[in-house]
Amino acid sequence: MATITAAMVKELRDKTGAGMMDCKTALNETDGDMEAAVDWLRAKGLAKAAKKAGRVAAEGLIGLAGDDKEAAVVEVNSETDFVARNPSFQELVQTIASAAPNAKGDLETLGASPYGETDTSVADTLKEMVGSIGENMTLRRTAHLTAGDGVVASYMHNQSSPGLGKIGVIVALESAGDADALKTFGKQVAMHIAAANPQAVDTDSLDPDLIDRERAVLTEQAKESGKPAEVVTKMVEGRLRKFYEEVVLLQQPFVHDPDNTVAKAVEAAAKDVGAPIKITGFYRFALGEGIDKGESDFAAEVAAAASGA
Fold this sequence. Notes:
It is built from twelve helices and nine strands. It folds into two domains: 1-55 and 292-309, Helicase, Ruva Protein, domain 3; 59-200 and 254-286, Tetrahydropterin Synthase, Chain A (2-Layer Sandwich), CATH 3.30.479. A hairpin with a 3-residue loop joins β1 (59-66) and β2. It is flat, with a radius of gyration of 22 Å. It has a four-stranded antiparallel sheet with strand order 3-2-1-5. Strands 4-6-9 form a three-stranded antiparallel sheet, with helices on one face. A two-stranded antiparallel ribbon has the order 7-8. By secondary structure, it is an alpha+beta fold.
């Protein structure tokens, strides 16, 4: 039997929003397996936020840079929003973003890239900024897309200045049609991605492990209905289709026209563009997603849980 620590309980609580004692029970029931514990809580209807990859708890900025054929997105974190609003920090993120297309999505390469026109690397410049401002900062991640016969469109939500904001999206669309019309449609798709947060372009692109986990959770939920096995199977398949509508880009209701899916919107746009359109990839960076910020009352909650154990 695995030893269940307070840190494990906290991690599960942050992932799911479930109560402390429920998290402790889930970990005990799954012998400390974190992913299995998340699924156990979901199956029992106890997880309040299991669909979220993590809690948005970091400050900083998302940066975008590139052109119609190539673009990159970066996330640079700071400890406080006060620093994120600092013009020096904003210039830092803009300059790092401008170097990102050449790094082709490789974080180590970006860190080693020259900072602007200087001989200092991005990583060393970041360290200098930490020393001068007195607040920790990190270059957390970067992603890159290209479009050979098409365009890369982008969108920045909550933009604080050109190319900087809280949610950044880049999306690649391949088409031999009119480039301007394709770019206009691409911007709409990028805005949709910012709002709807899909996990993959199509069902085939979804992580098989994610599908297996979802199927297992839905099966446990359906079994609790007490219905026959063949009915349970149909229930699970129906709920999986609903799951795909939530997480697969092409199956989501298009935010600009909710009566139609993104796939239908692509078909309609192809007529305006004058050629078929294929969405080949996208990246969506939301500031601080998946970064946990400890809660101040956690120690008291652990003490209360321990006393009741």
